[in-house]
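Deviation from plan, reported transparently: S-adenosylmethionine complex.
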Amino acid sequence: MSAYSRLEKRLQELDHSAKKSLGQNFLISDIVIEKILAAAATFECQKIVEIGPGCGALTDLLIDKYTDIKLIELDRDLFNFWKSQGMDIINQDALQMDWRPYADRLLVSNLPYQISSSLVIERSLDAQPLVGMVLMFQKEVAQRIRATHQTEHYGMLSIIAQEFWDIQTVCDAGPRDFKPPPKVASRVLLFKSRKTNIADPKAYLSFVKAAFQQRRRILKTNLQGLDAKYDLNRLIDWLKQNRKTEKVRAEELSVIEINSLYHFLKT
Ligand code: SAM
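Because the crystal trials were delayed, the predicted structure below was used instead.
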């Protein structure tokens, strides 16, 4: 049965209407669903966690391939449905819960757009990271995640995501691949957890946030608010060693350079 027919049938069975407040744009493209599953299959991970099973666009097919699946669904009605099907599901906000029990899993989700940037930041900071993630984003957020320095979309989200994950683009999806159609284009990204020399991800996030505090301001000024854990007198040395002028902005530094600067300034 096509994804579209599965959705129509389930919406009728459950007497459910999509809730805009919960970002319920249900996937109806068999092609996009297949690409998400194929991306998930590139991981040798048999344990899945899915945020927002919704009406089952992905879940119905994940069940055929994986035996160990955990679901997180904020919508009480949809939670009750999956519970009644005997699924292992919790009724929680994916941004508010304890992710430690999921560390050895692969996260797969057609994310509600409103939580996607925070979710990527939060999962990047986990002491025990997920094995990987295959996630649908609003295209513009996906562009920010993958942006390189000196480009318009580059910023805090790019640096944090690229520091902690190797990221690939899986596919694009248009409004017509969803019901109801969102106003924006979408893109699926694959994240593989990568080794990093950042021992304290939260401190790193604060550092990157400070560097980008005011995008158009020079790095030196932005960093002035940092606490005594950083020796700002060393900034000039680092800039010289790396052939940067004192007027350099954070957006001109690559992910590797920001990492190098962080370790150089840390006392
Ligand atoms: N996976 C389904 C699909 O692809 O058609 C539904 C995806 S829909 C874009 C997002 C799903 O996430 C909805 O089922 C929604 O109820 C759920 N959701 C929204 N906000 C959530 C949150 N903060 N935590 C967990 N689930 C959430």
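The chain has a mean pLDDT of 96. We consider this an acceptable substitute for the interim report.
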